[in-house]
Amino acid sequence: MDSLNLDYSVDKIKLEYQIISNEEAQSFMDKLELSENVESFYQSNKISSCRYNFLMGTNESRVYVGVTPNWFFDRKSDDTSIILEFNPNKIDPFIFQELLFLKYHRRFLIKILSIDFAVDFAVDYNLLRVKKRDLREKYTTIGKRYIETRYLGDYGDNHVKLYNKALEHGVENVDWSRFEITSKKINSAYMAFAEFEKLLKLPEIYVVGQCSMEEFNLNDVNRLALISIIDDINLLAYIKNYHTRKKFEKYLSKCLTSINISISCIYQSYIDFCDYFFKS
């Protein structure tokens, strides 16, 4: 479906500012403790968390700041790291005076820990279908409050989410769906496209169109089978007979339309973010 106006963006990013001296980190935390911009503070000993954790801003536009990651904490070390996580669509972390010193940190010492890419499109969420990239891949649908979200893959690298963005924002009578994918291996700014393309694994996304079952001249069993496969296209892979599977693939080609999510456009959103964030 090339005619769709797809909107690509970096939805969330988590950065590690490496080799910060302990003295500078302590001075930084002293300023945060006195800041009115800090919404909350907590300490954690979890290996996946930072020792000292601050939340700045509001629920709608929040910046997470972590000091001294527990995953490599060494009491004898003379330096540490600072973690910064935020949604660039909602907030610029450097509006907070306390964070400005990170803006001028040497870029080669800034590591991208994770980055989320979002693609918005004007399609009814209920008509969307996502195909597994591998038959063994996990695929689950979870309802949180009144919003249903489909998840593809294990939480972490190349984890996919698909949900109704209009419903999340309380917008009525508007088709607005969102596709998100997380990468934990795109670790540097300005990665070459060839490497970027290798690391980001996109699934196939389809839209259910209007097709008449009558033209297929199916018996009742095959009609019910086709309805089930349209509802969950991953069932197609379980048809062992080659000719039967090809027959249903032909039916699906008339019932489903592919959404062309462009890896090149996702890459451009990554480059645009890097140009804005690391050069401004």
Describe this protein's structure.
It is a single chain. With 280 residues, the chain is α+β, with helices and mostly antiparallel strands. 25% of the residues lie in helices and 34% in strands. The chain contains 7 helices and 13 strands. The strands form 2 sheets. A 10-stranded antiparallel sheet has the order 2-3-4-5-1-6-11-10-9-8. The two termini are 36 Å apart. The model has no long low-confidence stretch (mean pLDDT 92).
From the structure above, extract its key features.
280 residues, alpha+beta, elongated
Task: Write a short abstract of this structure.
The chain has helices at residues 22-34, 100-103, 165-168, 193-199, 220-231, 242-255, 263-279, and strands at 7-21, 38-43, 50-57, 62-69, 79-86, 110-121, 128-131, 139-144, 147-152, 160-164, 177-183, 204-208, 256-259. The longest helix is centred in the last third of the chain and has 17 residues, at 263-279. The protein is built from seven helices and 13 strands.
Radius of gyration: 23 Å
The helix/strand series, from N terminus to C terminus, equals EHEEEEHEEEEEHEHEHHEH
> Care to count the β-strands?
13
Structure classification: alpha+beta
Number of helices: 7
Percent of sequence in beta strands: 25-35%
Oligomeric grouping of the chains: single chain
User: Major beta sheet, specifics?
Assistant: 10 strands, antiparallel
Placed side by side, the strands forming the largest sheet appear as 2-3-4-5-1-6-11-10-9-8
Shape: elongated
**Helix proportion:** 25-40%
CA distance, first residue to last residue: 36 Å
Low-confidence stretches: none
Q: Average pLDDT, to the nearest integer?
A: 92
